[in-house]
Amino acid sequence: MWLKPEEILLKNAFKLWVTEKDNEYFVLQRRRGYGEGGGGLTGLLVGTLDTVLDSTSKVAPYRILHHTPDSQVYWSVACGVTREEIFQHWEWLQQNIMRTLSVFDSSEDITSFVQGKIRGLIAEEGKTSLVLEDDPEKFREALLRFEKWFELPPEEKLVTYYSCSYWKGKVPCQGWLYLSTNFLCFYSYLLGAEVKLVISWDEIWRLEKTSNVILTESIHVLAHGEDHYFSMLLHLNETFSIMEQLADYSIKRLFDKEAFEREPALSDPLQITKRGLEAHAKSQQFRTFFRLPKEENLLEVHEGFLWVPFSHFNTLGKICLSENYLCFASQDGSQCHVVIPMREVVNVEKPDSGSRALTVFVRGKKALRFSEVRDYQRLANTIRSRCGISASPQHSASPEAIRGECQSLINHFEDNPEDVTLMVGQKDSSKAVSTEALMTVFHPQDVENLDPKMLKEKMKEQSWDIHFSEYGRGTSMFFTRKTRDLIVRGVPESLRGELWMLFSGAVNDMATHPGYYTELVEQSLGTSTLATDEIERDLHRSLPEHPAFQSDTGISALRRVLTAYAYRNPKIGYCQAMNILTSVLLLYAKEEEAFWLLVAVCERMLPDYFNRRIIGALVDQAVFEDLIRENLPQLVEHMTDLSFFSSVSLSWFLTLFISVLPIESAVNVVDCFFFDGIKSILQLGLAVLDYNMEALISCSDDAEAVTILNKFFDSVTNRDSPLPPTVQQALVGNNSKASHVGVDISELIREAYEKYGSIRSEEVESSRKRNKLYVIQTLEDTTKQNVIRVVSQDVRFNITQLDELYNLFKRQHFLSCYWTMKSPALLHHDPSLAYLEQYQLGFQQFSELFSLLEPWAFCTYKSSLSLWVFRLIDENQDGLINFKEFCCALDTLYSGSFTNKLKFLFKLHLPPAFDLPEDGVIKKSPERGRGRIDLQAYLKQWQNEILKKEETIKDLPRINQTQFIQLSKTFYNIFHGHPEEESLYRAIAHVTSLLLRMEEVGRRLQEPSSPSESEKAAGTSPAEDSSTEQGAVTPESCDSSHNSQDAGSELSDTEWSFSFEQVLASLLNEPTIVDFFDRPLNVQTKLGQARAAQLKLKANKGKDSKGN
Fold it and tell me: Which of 403, 402, 423 is nearest to 412 (CA)?
């Protein structure tokens, strides 16, 4: 059957395949182990592997690949089960394709044509043999197996499943791979050997396609330091794509919530489906390619031809429709695309119903003619409905006149194809200018100046005018290779702002949000936040050598734009480097335009760059390292540790080279960035390293390498810049410049495109996804190591035990987030907080985890003991427990002395742990990470922690009758089920009766005395002092304390109380109890049991609640 053309890896493929037929453009191969000959030992191994697999995962024994003579890339175009089937496909290619390929000049055109033809064949076959991928009956059976084998909570949503082989060591296990919302699962049962694997997506460090000697392609998963390989997948690319999306979904939802909140389509984890993920991925690619707002979704895709007036031929491509845009991208290698906002469309006409063509008329006397569109009627109706043409009064008033005008345009276009103004027109210049770019105000161009630089600037402007006349100007301009060539040569100063707006898509944002910026400025005026404080501090550090920012005009504009954006997007607020970027934007764009350019950069073009962890920049640095390994092997051999380049290049990515290059050179880099995105920055970075290759290889240390790069950047010039010397940045170190040959920025950029222009945007995006997992997990691991280092100073657990405890603690947090659309626990995670505060547990989460880890078997997550423990260790009573508080409590219970364990249990039965109402756990749960930080409160809390004295047993208040009875019950519950249960019961009964007799004797001796002595015995002052020092006693507990102090005068004779010393002394006289608490506990065993039972406990709880 014909296959959708997909690039395949052939690194080791020829060991598994035998070529039977080949020509200049196609190769027919047979898999070893099939057909004649068998293939020897290799064929026997391959044949055995393929034979033991079930039918749904077998690799087809025959295939046809497409390639071109000057390319190493192969594309799969067909596969077959029998020799006859594959030979039929081969003959068809020989008769129908080979003759046509000779007319093409380039390999790219040949490959594009073959791919388009194969896709057309698949579409024709799909008419008669439509196969539903999601068979409801099969999916239901798979869901039952999934629930039975893995025992996950009933809320867990199975997305899809595949048959595959899992490599356990060097032996493949044939089984089933299940991909659910939160877990990657595999199950195999062969000859009595069961293999079960459950990995949560948030634990994965690496996810990539790879190849090895035995198997051509497989999927590699790295989690918990272990490598897992899945192979023999019939649809490997589809499987990998779904896995990649689910991992990315989990990362965004649990770690990177800022990005997740921008994607409402994936907000509910219970509604994730395979089809939904695929649609979301396509929409994301669609928005990225055409630079559209994040609200746009890909609704329809049609294949057809567009008449391209500047080339005078029809180009094959995809017609894509979203809610507000009509887009076209060619598929023939011409790299032509166009974006038409629906607001610009005035009419749609079908000139001839037999030709399957339609013409879209746009404002400014422009027209786009599409032909050979299979479902042209639907396309026309969709465009009309989206534009509201039929409902528009101006069109419905005189339809005949409009039809006549449109027909005359069509006729004129057909008769005069060279008249391209009908197709693309000229820019509408009727808009009034509200403000001016700072460069226009401070350095207006001198029209009469005829020096060489100004003449060259005029030539550039003329080149762009010719380009506009051919390709159009404004939102519906055609983007082609020629556009990129002009960008590389340099953009004229007068057109820079306009083109930045167009290439970034910011022009559409501004057009669809009139007045939005003005409202933001008014609303943000006078606000005082942490972001505004940082903005004020950095205003005068933004291009301070430029005259525009030495005046109040530039500074005020910069303040307004940055403050307005911080008000619009409080999640990002303000991040250093935004001031430098915005300063350059204000030089060439009007103030409102600069704001929308900043929106486009921060929210679309450089996602996750401008936050506290600069995740996006770190991800692109990892992508940059990969590209260095691929393209600069000499440098890699000399400098095996590429982390140096990551540290050096951080400013390159954050400021788009503005911070390291002279301003007149840096703007050329920004030109390329707005046209090609991050790909242009990566290319330029490689060109810089390549240019300095010899010097970098010969340097002895990192400091010398940094000096070499700094000297290089200082030597970069822009010979064509018409700016006066006062505007250009003062170059540092003129003496050093003499020793370094000057480099023109245009030549450097041209060299970057020539050498590394083959880097595809799709490859960059794929590498971004792959490296994002590793970057996030590295940051998380750094957080864990810092937390463990702090906590290890206060507890007796070793590093390994603390590592396991942290993993359990963090996983418990995630388990409460997996199956809820808006889990409160998600608000408890804020990466911007201190390490210890990033992950915290609420009461429900804590009680479940504590029931698995507490050393005595009686406690369950419904037990009152977990509630009292939670209240006791929640010192600030915010309803959240951090990892240090959790570990300190467990350390006391596992490794504390008998006195410390008893003191802990004693305090559990005192306020604030014991006397609060059952529902009074969470006093407050503040929204985290927003607004102005109260530094005074932090300083006061820090001072209290420093001054806090270590608590002694004399500081503990007396325990009253109710509390003592509950303490006795707690002891009985702790001893329940122990082998020495009876002796322990007798011992505690003896202690209880002894304490009661002691209290009775004491009261009799004190009867003649004054009540003040009784109050003194009750320890009033120490209790109050302890309350003051710890700051943990609530007003309710204070009232309770006063009531117990007046027991001698106000309560009945049956009321009594004990001090901690009395309880301790009595229990020390019972060796059985002392031995019970002093007996060493196996922490490692308990951790292992908790790890195995953690997910099962959640599943059982979910089933119980579902059953109820």
Answer: 423
For residues 23 and 111, state if they share a domain. yes
Q: How far is CA 735 from the centre of its chain?
A: 46
pLDDT tens by residue, 596-644: 999 999 989 998 888 778 888 999 999 999 999 999 988 888 877 777 8
Going by C-alpha positions, the residue among 835, 813, 808 that lies closest to residue 824 is 813
**Tens-digit pLDDT profile for residues 208-245:** 998 765 666 889 999 988 999 998 788 888 899 999 99
Q: How far apart are CA 166 and CA 174, in angstroms?
A: 6
369: tokens are: 């003619």
The predicted-structure confidence for 1000-1048, as pLDDT tens digits, reads as follows 776 777 665 444 444 433 333 333 333 333 333 333 333 333 333 333 3
| 767 residue type, one letter | S
Structural domain contains residue 610: no
Cα–Cα distance list, 147 to 243, 349, 581 (Å):
20, 55, 52
Together in a domain, 141 and 232: yes
Say if residues 828 and 840 touch (Cβ distance below 8 Å).
yes
pLDDT score of 878: 80
Task: Determine whether 430 is exposed, middle or buried from the number of CB atoms within 10 Å of its CB (0-12, 13-18, 19+).
Answer: exposed
Q: Would you say residue 778 lies in a domain?
A: no
Q: Is the dihedral of CA 757, 759, 761, 765 positive or negative?
A: negative
Q: Helix (H, G, I), strand (E, B), or coil: what is residue 881? A: strand
CA–CA distance, 87 with 279 (Å, rounded to integer):
35
Any idea which residue has 């691991």 for tokens?
Answer: 781
Residue 1033 belongs to a domain: no
pLDDT band at 859 (very low <50, low <70, confident <90, very high): low
d(CA 77, CA 80): 11
Interstrand relation of 716-717 and 743-744 (parallel, antiparallel or unpaired) = parallel
- Same domain, residue pair 588 and 621: no
Specify whether 37 is located in the same domain as 151: no
Does 236 share its domain with 171?
yes
Residue type, 654: L
Taken in order 223, 229, 234, 238, the sign of the CA dihedral is: positive
Q: Express each pLDDT in 616-625 by its tens digit.
A: 899 999 999 9
- Domain residues for the domain of 329 are 293-385
**Same domain, residue pair 634 and 589:** no
- Is beta strand 300-308 parallel, antiparallel or unpaired with respect to 313-321? antiparallel
- Using DSSP's 3-state secondary structure scheme, residue 276 falls into helix
- Residue 608: partners with Cβ closer than 8 Å, 6 or more residues away: 256, 258, 259, 614, 615, 616, 619
Cβ neighbours around 561 below 10 Å, total: 29
Residues 35 and 160 in one domain: no
Cis ω before 912 (30° cut-off from 0): yes
Name beta bridge partners: 717: 744
CATH of the domain at 471: 1.10.8.270
